[in-house]
Amino acid sequence: MQRALELAERAQAAGEVPVGALVVLGGRIIAEGWNRPISAQDPTAHAEIVALRAAAAVQANYRLTGSILYVTLEPCAMCLGAMQNARVARVVFGAWDARAGACGSVLDLPRQMRAGGAIDAFGGVCADASRELLRRFFASRR
């Protein structure tokens, strides 16, 4: 999660909402991403999607079976859907997102997914650091 926080800082330096993500497979990081919707002019360029695209390219396969995605903010429904399609086994996230979170805050999609496409979700890892990074970012924008 520390690496995901570093990636979130990279997003912030680029003027993006500070969210970072990485994909781990077989105990090693295979791909990283950070928020890029503004710079990429792409509403789907969330940190999770960027990391998943990079991981799929590294694996030369859209299926990332058995992988773990670490992200600093609770994923939204779009990102969770992409994780399901990629066959991500688990998502570990930092801060809860009371605005758009889909792992228990607003929606609880992991519990609603069928067994074959279920994703294990675990939140609150380094939550204080993730939340503080977001708080400082939005305070600077006001």
Low-pLDDT sequence parts: none
How many alpha or pi helices? 6
How much of the sequence is in beta strands?
A: 15-25%
- The average pLDDT value, as a whole number, equals 95
**Number of strand elements:** 5
Question: Helix fraction?
Answer: 40-55%
Principal-axes shape call: globular
- H/E order of the elements? HEEHHEHEHEH
Distance between the termini: 28 Å
Read across the widest sheet, the strand sequence of neighbours is: 2-1-3-4-5
Radius of gyration: 14 Å
Largest sheet properties: 5 strands, mixed
Give keywords:
142 residues; 6 helices; alpha/beta
What does this structure look like?
Helix content is 41%, strand content 20%. The protein has 142 residues and is an alpha/beta fold. The protein has a five-stranded mixed β-sheet. Helix 5 (109-112) links the parallel strand 4 and strand 5 (120-123). Helix 1 runs parallel beside helix 6 (127-141) and helix 3 (47-59) runs parallel beside helix 4 (77-86). The longest helix has 15 residues, at 127-141. The chain is globular and about 40 Å long. The N and C termini lie far apart (28 Å).
